[in-house]
């Protein structure tokens, strides 16, 4: 039987740029701390294993830090973390550059998932904003993994905020919990990224009736200052609405301080969705119409040719 009650933890993580050994050590210690607090799943930010910021644009692609420090999945970092998650019987999700085992020339902005039984898999970021194309290749499919709480959807930053069709896909697949590994800094349009990030998380939680655990980098990277704001939020029992169970909003005072934030949430509070036809015409047919959307998307494909 699918479980409803889960202890979640998210981490404001201050990555040391280019120091994979130090970052891995601290990821492992945060997993220890999360387990001691009773967490069953702990989420870390995008690229927390290496740091996020780019180097000069005229550099050779293969000389870029993230590509030099990239690893296959499975690989040394995931083996260390899987050893810890198996010890505690928990899940840990963390961002890292993944080198494709089958095609070593490809490196992805990825998030690895380790669980009670070992390695679960990796999510590869599909849409690459800003400078990420300088070192990363684009992924090509949404990532869902199966847990005692049902399917869980995982996406990375830009994919999560700006492409709601990914969230809707997760929800249609039965996910009641979505994870966001992110890296939002204060330099992105003078902090507007945090304002928009708050609106996106709140909208997605309410519109899709889903819980979200979002984990952001914090503090100084190479040149950027990351704003933290890791949080756990979901639909309010007084629908429609949202409720923050732990952490803080982007741009809140003190939101950029390092730390771990945890909460116990009841996934059975997920009850309403446009996918189910709760607000439909009473016919029992769902309001969501993928047969129509596919037709529209094919029309767009024809326009692009």
Automatic annotation (TrEMBL):
The keyword Hydrolase applies. Residues 6-267 form the CN hydrolase domain. This is Carbon-nitrogen hydrolase family protein. It comes from Candidatus Eisenbergiella merdigallinarum. Keywords: Hydrolase. InterPro entries: Aliph_Amidase/BUP, C-N_Hydrolase, C-N_Hydrolase_sf. Pfam families: CN_hydrolase. PANTHER family: CARBON-NITROGEN FAMILY, PUTATIVE (AFU_ORTHOLOGUE AFUA_5G02350)-RELATED, NITRILASE C965.09-RELATED. The keyword Hydrolase applies. GO terms for molecular function: hydrolase activity, acting on carbon-nitrogen (but not peptide) bonds, in linear amides. Gene3D superfamilies: Carbon-nitrogen hydrolase.
